[in-house]
Design brief:
The protein has one domain: 3-Layer(aba) Sandwich (Undecaprenyl pyrophosphate synthetase), CATH 3.40.1180.10. The chain is 50% helix and 13% strand. It has a 6-stranded parallel sheet with strand order 3-4-2-1-5-6, sandwiched between helices. Helix 5 links the parallel strand 3 and strand 4.
């Protein structure tokens, strides 16, 4: 594609962006308070671009996140949960995992410097000490900041989260001297929800996944029971504001039916 064609295409996208913004505003459709994002396709993007080092794809994907957060803030979104690394990913070869963790550490550092309120979620005890410390420090330094809350899911797995929640619940009741029988008498879904990584936050209204895959892969299993889903064909590094606005338009056009 020549420079002239590229300029023309970018101009068309800008026009289309404005049209989408106008339609969303005119419809006065609800904006999701909480958006979950599965940032998928970094490695495939790198291969598609002919890059031998897939970590350049991870870095490109990390750079995209700051853009997304600005779009979310401008739209009125209050919470964003980003799935950056699953518990399954931790079993990758060391030569691949270590550079990825470095990219994540750099991303978290940038989010802190940019002024975001950053909250880590996941099994931090499974992470290398340095990565876990970067995440914990980010939470401590930014906990007082107002505005959009950014949950970074690192070393996260939905099944493990539920298991951790049940374990935490049992430990809490045991510390009070309660028996299993006592817990069984009162246990309900809210008790478990209070021990999830996202405790205190609203469940995600909208979950976006890039790269064309149409599955959750364990992301926010408990919390997404009533979420709306939007699957985008673009690999994460190629995710554009147009794609984000399409997701908002799709969400706003749906009639949410809880429990059916």
């Amino acid at each position: 594609m020549g420079v002239r064609d590229l300029v023309y295409r970018n101009l068309l996208y800008k026009v289309y962006e404005r049209r989408l913004e106008h339609k969303i505003a005119k419809a006065a459709a609800p904006i999701p308070r909480h958006v979950g994002v599965i940032v998928d396709g970094n490695r495939r993007w790198a291969r598609m671009m002919g890059l031998e080092d897939v970590n350049r794809g991870h870095q490109k994907g990390a750079d995209k996140i700051s853009e997304l957060l600005v779009w979310c803030r401008e739209a009125g979104v209050e919470y964003v949960t980003l799935w950056l690394l699953s518990t399954d990913n931790l079993s990758r070869d060391k030569a691949e995992l270590e550079p990825l963790l470095q990219v994540i550490e750099g991303l978290v550092g940038n989010l802190v410097e940019q002024g975001w309120h950053v909250t880590p979620m996941g099994s931090l005890d499974l992470l290398p000490d340095h990565t876990a410390r970067v995440l914990k420090d980010a939470k401590e330094v930014t906990s007082h900041r107002p505005g959009l809350i950014v949950n970074v899911a690192v070393g996260y797995g939905g099944r493990r989260e539920i298991a951790d929640a049940v374990r935490s619940l049992l430990q809490e009741h045991a510390s009070k001297g309660a028996s299993i029988e006592d817990l069984v008498e009162v246990l309900d879904v809210e008790h478990i929800a209070e021990h999830l990584y996202t405790r205190g936050l609203p469940d995600p209204d909208l979950v976006i996944r890039t790269s064309g895959e149409q599955r959750l892969s364990g992301f926010l299993l408990w919390q997404s029971a009533h979420s709306e889903f939007y699957f985008c064909e673009a690999y994460w590094p190629d995710f554009r504001r147009v794609d984000f606005l399409r997701a908002l338009r799709s969400y706003g056009a749906r009639h949410r039916r809880y429990g059916s």
